[in-house]
Amino acid sequence: MQPKMGSFISLEEAQNQKTINQFIPRNLPLKLLLMLLLLGVIGMVLLYINMYTNQYAIVTKTHSQIQKCVQESKNLESWIKPPSSVFHDMNDIELFWRASFVPKIKKYPFKRTPKIAFMFLTRGPLPMAALWGRFFKGNDKLYSIYVHSLPSYRPEFLPSSAFYRRHIFSQVAKWGMMSMCDAERRLLANALLDISNEWFVLLSEACIPLRNFSTIYHYISNSQFSFIGAFDEPGPNGRGRYNERMSPEVNISDWRKGSQWFEINRKLAIDIIQDNFYYPKFKEFCKPDCYVDEHYFPTMLSIESPHLLANRSLTWVDWSRGGPHPATFGKDDITDDFFREILHEETCVFNDQPNSPCFLFARKFSPSALDRLLENSVKFFGF
C-alpha cells in the first residue's frame, strides 16, 4: 500500500525543518530572522533607488550646464553688449590680449552706433568735471568715459555724474617714462572692450572741450584720418633724442615727435595695445631726456600706418612761454579775446582740404578757471 500524500509532505517538511534548524542558532527565534531578512531586502531596494536618483540628478545637472553653455555661445548680445562696469581682475597682459580681438568680417550683423571713448589721464581729481558733465549731457549713446588716475586716489562722484564709477584699475605713471605710455595703453585696452567704441581721445584733467558734443562727434566721425602729431624735428629735442641702439627696429629716418594728446580710430588703438616689436626698444633706450610719450606712438604709427595720420593734434596748447611745460590758464585768462584767438584764427587741413576749426579741445586750465568757464560755456562753446 502506498503512503498517503499527506504523509509524504509531512516527511519532506520535517526534513527541511531539520536542515534549517541546523543553521539557526538555538537562541534566535525564526520570526526575528525573517524580520531581519525582510529589512535587508528593503534596505537593498532603497539603496538601489537612491543610486538611480543620484545618477539621474548628475546627468540632468550636467545636461543643464551643457545647454546653458550652448545657449550663451549662440547669444550674440553676450559678445556685443558693453561691459556693465569698468572693474575687472585682469592684469595688463590678460587685458591687452583680450582687447586685441578683431572680427575678420568688417560688416556688423547688428545695428552698431559708433561711440567716442573719452580717456582721461589724471593724477587725481577732475577739476573740470562739471564742465565736461554739461558737455556730455543728452548724448549717452554716443560716448563712453575711462579715467586713469594714481592708484591711491579715491573718486567721490555722485551716481548722477558722467564720471561715476568710470575709473579703471591704474598704476603709477611718471612723466617722460614708459609708465606714462603704459597708462595710455591701459586706457585704450579698457575702452576696446566695448565693441561700439570707434574713436579714442586722450585728455588730461586740465583739458576742456572747445565745441559742443554734436560738432565734435561730427568732426571726428567724418574724418578720414586719425589725429596724432608725427614730425621729423632735426634739432636736439627731436632727432637729438634718438639712440642708435634702437636700430634696426627704429632708424633715425623713422624717428618722429608729436603731442601726447591724440585721437585715433579703432584700428590704430589695437595696433598700439598689441605692439611688442617697438615697445622693448623704446622702453630700454628712450629715457629722460628722451621723453618716450612724445616719440613712441608717433614713431610707431608713422612706420606702420602713415596713410592713416592727419599729422596734427586736435588739442590746442600754448608753448609760447617756453620751458618743458605749456602755459596754464586761470580765471583771469578766460575772456572773449582769448577764445576768439583759439577758435577762429587758425586754419588747417581736414580730409586733404583747407578747414577751420582746427582744434576741438584745449589745455592747460587751472581749477580757478572753472566758474568763469561755466558762466560763459554757451557763449564760448555752444553748450
Structure notes:
It is a single chain. The protein is an alpha/beta fold. It has a domain of 208 residues: Spore Coat Polysaccharide Biosynthesis Protein SpsA, Chain A (Alpha-Beta Complex), CATH 3.90.550. Helix content is 40%, strand content 9%. It has 13 helices and 9 strands. The strands form 3 sheets. A 4-stranded mixed β-sheet has the order 2-1-3-5. A 3-stranded mixed β-sheet has the order 4-9-6. The chain has a two-stranded antiparallel sheet with strand order 7-8. Strand 1, helix 5 and strand 2 form a beta-alpha-beta unit. Helix 6 packs across helix 8. The longest helix is centred in the N-terminal third of the chain and has 45 residues. The radius of gyration is 37 Å and the shape is elongated. The N and C termini lie far apart (129 Å). 28% of the residues are buried. InterPro entries: BC10-like, Glyco_trans_14. One of its GO terms (molecular function) is glycosyltransferase activity. This is Branching enzyme.
Q: Which characteristics define this entry?
A:
alpha/beta, Spore Coat Polysaccharide Biosynthesis Protein SpsA, Chain A, Glyco_trans_14, 4-stranded mixed β-sheet, 40% helix, glycosyltransferase, 383 residues, 3-stranded mixed β-sheet
Detail the topology: elements first, then pairings.
Layout (H helix, E strand, L loop, with lengths): L4 H19 L6 H45 L2 H4 L11 H8 L15 E7 L7 H8 L6 E6 L29 H15 L4 E8 L3 E2 L3 H9 L41 E3 H8 L5 H7 L10 H9 L10 E2 L19 H9 L3 E3 L2 E3 L5 E2 L7 H6 L1 H5 L2
Parallel strand pairs: 1-2, 1-3, 6-9
Antiparallel strand pairs: 3-5, 4-9, 7-8
